Amino acid sequence: MKKIILNCVPPFACNMPSPAMSILKSWLTKNGYDSSVIYWNMHLYKLQSDFVWNKPSTFETSSQLGLYVNYMLNKSKDSFLINCFKKIIQCSSPRYLTDDPLYYDMHMAKFADKMDDVIDTILSEIDFSETLMFGFSLKMDGWIFSSIVAEKVKKIAPEIPILVGGISTKEKAKSLLENFTQFDMAMWGEGEEPLVKVVEMLKEGKNNYSELINTAYRSQEGVLFSENKNNYYIDLSEQDMYPDYSDYFKQKKKLKLDIESILPIEGSRGCHWNKCKFCYLNSDYRYRVKSCVKICAEIKYMMNKFQLFSFEFLDNDFIGADLNKANLLIDNLILLKKEEPRFKIVIAEVITKGLNHSIIKRMFDAGIIFVQIGYESTSHKLLRKIRKKNTFASNLFYVKIASLYKIPLGNVNVLVNMPDETIEDILESIDNLRFLRFFLNPIYFKHMLIPVQVDSSSRYYLEVKNKTSGWTPSALAYDFLQNYILEKDHWIIFDYVKQSRHYQWETFKNIERYYLENKHTYSIKKESGTIEYLEYINGRKISEFNFCEDSVDWLILCYANDMVVSLQDLYIYMRCYLSNNSIDKKKLQSAVEDLMRRGLIYHTPDFSEIVSIINTSMI
């Protein structure tokens, strides 16, 4: 039986098996087909690093994609672009600028030749007479390297079909075929069943491309689309199928790569929210969740098989749409952690809305080291406009609890230049930094301003397509590769950003810097039924408040301590707590407003979310 050659390409990281290729390999095996995965990223790992002299670069192009951009420019013989790119490379190691100025030209040419040698050597080991097809994933700029290898394959064996996937929309699939003649078919959306249909067709020697699923293909009339949509989505909980990571570990061993590997876990696929205006990553992916039993069984299987204990959850939201299921999973992961203390989850992504103190703490107990929370903004209004499920209040609460347990969040992204952004949103973002004053920390938690990325599949595209002035390609690599792509397809294949931002974002950065450089702390102590609150900057007392233990103010702070609550929740609680039921809702609202003025509470304008900034459990 002829073999399917799957390809994991740069810039995919080398410390993890490809989730997509590993599950596709298992699915092909289940359907009776032989396949293998070539990890080009590992084969080129050392060369990629040597190209930038084994040190981080100021420019992302030269550190991640530079080797491959250099190769394409070298083959193009475009002297102007080669010279432009040379300046970027010179930044990585400027020491040759004066004593050997021709060094960089030789360096770039030499590494293009070395890359040729690596690719040619790997391809020479393939028996093309026993190869049914090649498959590439073009996600995360994979099209750059894939186009290079595919072109070489076509020169060796032009009759072998090349299928590309990892594509979000049919329009992008069409554009990729129109721009790269070395690709024969392009598939969008989920790949398991559509891939099997392609393999079945090729095995039977047919050319009924129109009957494929979610696939663009070439014909005499140009690029056409198959007639069938994907109506079959694999069951993630299927007990007898695990991702096949064998090719990854075989090649890692053969190449003697000294890299600490982590294993991916797909706890769910798609996004249960899928409403964020800036996101375009979940097109044609149906949301569903893998069962808790299957997740834990898979983790145990992988730990036993590979003696590796570090995992990464790939989910858009580790918690998901069902809190009961999430609690069950967390409980089982805690048990697994007790059975195998080396087990850890190095990263997971979480939507913070609806989380309470108990869930967050138990996530850490389950071995989660780092959580990405989809933060995006410190403006409540802007988060609503861009349709995030997270809110500033829910993010603030998560930051508070993570800070309590010294769990780092690192640099969290604040998106700027969104089409919805107004000066009022920026000013609110600045004001809300005050409520983060106890948690901002140069190591554990700070903000990074990131321009929003837009392409033709983004919900934002309709808002910017007629006013694209000021929008530039998001990656420096794209600047050097624009000539490879038809101009009409630039917004389809490239992501774009608007680099210039409103001057008030500099105010945001400066005020955040003040909080980062000046440590804000507080103390709470109780004596004779009185709560004393003291606040300090760099150890100097700046404010003092006293509360009676049974005062409305203190009860508000306590009730909003371990979860985000609403004014209605608070009102019901107060009526139950106060024996005479004497609380007035307007007075309760005034008390909340006063606590916010003092910087102890944050509430939304409609009082639907209220959260205590301080930890009342300290006493």
UniProtKB/TrEMBL annotation:
Listed InterPro entries: BchE-like, Elp3/MiaA/NifB-like_rSAM, rSAM, rSAM_horseshoe, rSAM_sf
Cofactors named for this entry: [4Fe-4S] cluster
Sequence ranges assigned to domain Elp3/MiaA/NifB-like radical SAM core in this UniProt record: 261-463
Alphabetized UniProt keyword annotations: Iron, Iron-sulfur, Metal-binding, S-adenosyl-L-methionine
GO molecular function list: catalytic activity; iron-sulfur cluster binding; metal ion binding
TM stretches of this protein: none
Gene3D superfamilies listed in its UniProt record: Cobalamin-binding domain, tm_1862 like domain
Keyword field contains S-adenosyl-L-methionine: yes
One Pfam family hit: Radical_SAM
Transport keyword on record: no
Protein name per its UniProtKB record: Bacteriocin maturation radical SAM protein 1
Organism: Bacteroides thetaiotaomicron
